[in-house]
Amino acid sequence: MRDLVERAMAGDHDAFSELTRVSVGRLLAIARLILHDEAAAEDATQEALVAAWRHIHGLRDPDRFEAWLHRMLVNACYREARRTRSRHVREVQLPALDLPAPDPTSRLLDHDQLDRGFRRLPVDQRAVLVLYYYLGLRPEEAAAVLGLPSGTVRSRLQRAITAMRAALDADARSLPIAEGGAT
Amino acid sequence: MTSRRMTDETFDFLMTTWLDERVSNDGADAVADAAISRTSRIRPRPAWLLTERWIPMQLTTRLQPVPRLTPIIAAIALLLALAIALFAIGSQHRLPPPFGFARNGTFAWVSNGQIVTTDLGSMTPTQLTTGDPTFNRPTFSRDGTKLAYERFSDADQTTADIIVAAADGSNAKVIDHGGLGIMTWSPDGRSLAYMAWAGTPNASRLQIVTTAADGSSRNVITTLPGDAWGPVWSPDSKRLLVGVDPGGYTDTYVVDVDGKNAQKLNHIRSLEGGDSDGEWSPDGSTILYSAGDPNLALGVYLVGFDGATERLISPGFRSAKNASYSPDGSQIAYMSQDYTGQGWQVVITDATGKELKTLPGYHGSNAPIWSPDGSKIAVIDWEGSEETGSAVVVVLDVAGNADPVRLPGGRLSMGRGEYALTWQRLAQ
């Protein structure tokens, strides 16, 4: 891997193509998780790889290629999210109904609730959740990927977790409906 | 508040399994083909196109004129000896002013999660803390007599005990729990301001706490419209400069210490989030801070309190942040990254932002720390990656007459090591 990165840094496009083949699956998976939009995820992944090639001379440490590429991808996801924001379905909450509490076990197993909660998060909070829970990065590692102070990432992570928990609780008490917007 | 809250472990497991199950690599080959096709037609390019007023506090001892009422020489000699003794005692307790040049004392930083000090003359490090390596962000009071720092109290390092000790590390006392550091001393040395989590478990947010140095008179500022970051005291110790993050960006505010009269100063947001790296000019008339988009370029700005638009003082074609006034306020140092993307350089300007020089060498992006006498600047270098490598403190000579001094470092507990350096001020 390091050899491929060093060759790519020297301008070897074949090496970069090989790196692209190796990395694209994970990049696309991350983009899909962050963006929840198939077309936008494919665009973001492609843009991240193009940006990586354009900026390959900016990579100082070959051993950090993967983290550096993740940073390119997250930035590309932010741009795609801004571009596609108007296309997303907006969800509104009906007033909470006075229903009996659902069975906690079934609620925990219902990933649809997580999905709805995740969609409501701003893209920067989705990104930090994906880096933390999917890639398994520690907050300071996620900070390096995002190019942010680690305190900022910890704050963002804490806020995202709090929002997800609150969304899960709210989901258990109310019924979301879709409103307006084309998909 | 629901009584059905799941445990942290359950939530972590749920998140991990849910994300893993949603992953699919379908279509990856097509994306790779498209990207390879596009990159084959383009060439790589460089990564980045991409005052002085101080309040004298020294204790002066004025000698009373010795009345020449008696010719007894022995009495005169005795008075003289007493005067010398009083002068010596007074000198030992003389304190530096909060602003303006001062004599360089010891230098404190974090090495492998412990607070370490050293004198640049002897270069012999002294470890002030022991035990679990979870200490961070030491900061000397401006009179050089006290040292505050944080000790993380949880595994995720999201909350910390706030500790105040004597400058030599003795008499350490926990004055608060549940803080998040980025603390600063009031210039009068009586109070601290720092960040802390506040609110309910489902709606916690970062707010600013002020306390007396002994932990009494604790007050939480709740009037700011978002997470509040990096409080910095005004020179008169009456107001605070705070970065406010309502959600994904940072505005720069000043607010009275009691939480009243919050005023937003900036027109350009920082999209980096969190702290705005703000600083007061020593005369309190101007604020220096960073703003912009980290994906494009951050800039260093000067802004006053009259509502006028901030003024960019760093070149628009470079990324710049973490600006800091020299002790006398006559110069500004900030970290700047040019289009080559080879790390960050220290740029020095006059108080208006006119560039004077760029110090040699590339470093981390952490804020440059001026020595109290204004002759040195400390920055952080990284050996290896910022996640796994070691931090080395590098002390640069502003005039360029001496080689850089490298202090033995180590792993910083907060990864990037922000705010991990502090320099003790002593009376000249």
Protein model, in words:
The complex is a heterodimer of chains A (183) and B (428). In chain A, 70% of the residues lie in helices and 4% in strands. Chain A has 183 residues and is mostly helical. In chain A, strands 1-2 form a two-stranded antiparallel ribbon. In chain A, helix 2 (13-35) runs antiparallel to helix 3 (38-54), helix 2 (13-35) crosses helix 7 (123-134) and helix 7 (123-134) packs across helix 9 (150-173). The termini of chain A are far apart. Residues 86-107 and 175-183 of chain A have low confidence and may be disordered. Chain B has three helices and 28 strands. Chain B has helices at 8-22, 28-39, 73-92, and strands at residues 103-111, 114-118, 126-127, 135-140, 146-152, 160-166, 173-179, 184-185, 191-198, 205-212, 219-221, 227-233, 239-245, 251-256, 263-264, 279-280, 287-293, 297-303, 311-312, 319-325, 331-337, 345-350, 355-358, 369-370, 376-383, 390-397, 405-410, 421-426. In chain B, the strands form seven sheets. A four-stranded antiparallel β-sheet of chain B has the order 3-2-1-28, with no helix packed on it. A four-stranded antiparallel β-sheet of chain B has the order 4-5-6-7, with no helix packed on it. The termini of chain B are far apart. At the A-B interface, helix 2, helix 3, helix 4, helix 5 and helix 6 of A face helix 1 and helix 2 of B.
Write the layout of secondary structure elements.
The complex is a heterodimer of chains A (183) and B (428).
Chain A lengths: L1 H8 L3 H23 L2 H17 L10 H20 L5 E4 L10 H6 L1 H10 L2 H12 L4 H8 L3 H24 L2 E4 L4
Antiparallel strand pairs in A: 1-2
Helix pairs in contact in A: 1-2, 2-3, 2-4, 2-7, 3-4, 4-8, 6-9, 7-9, 8-9
Chain B lengths: L7 H15 L5 H12 L33 H20 L10 E9 L2 E5 L7 E2 L7 E6 L5 E7 L7 E7 L6 E7 L4 E2 L5 E8 L6 E8 L6 E3 L5 E7 L5 E7 L5 E6 L6 E2 L14 E2 L6 E7 L3 E7 L7 E2 L6 E7 L5 E7 L7 E6 L4 E4 L10 E2 L5 E8 L6 E8 L7 E6 L10 E6 L2
Antiparallel strand pairs in B: 1-2, 1-28, 2-3, 4-5, 5-6, 6-7, 8-9, 9-10, 10-11, 12-13, 13-14, 14-15, 16-17, 17-18, 18-19, 20-21, 21-22, 22-23, 24-25, 25-26, 26-27
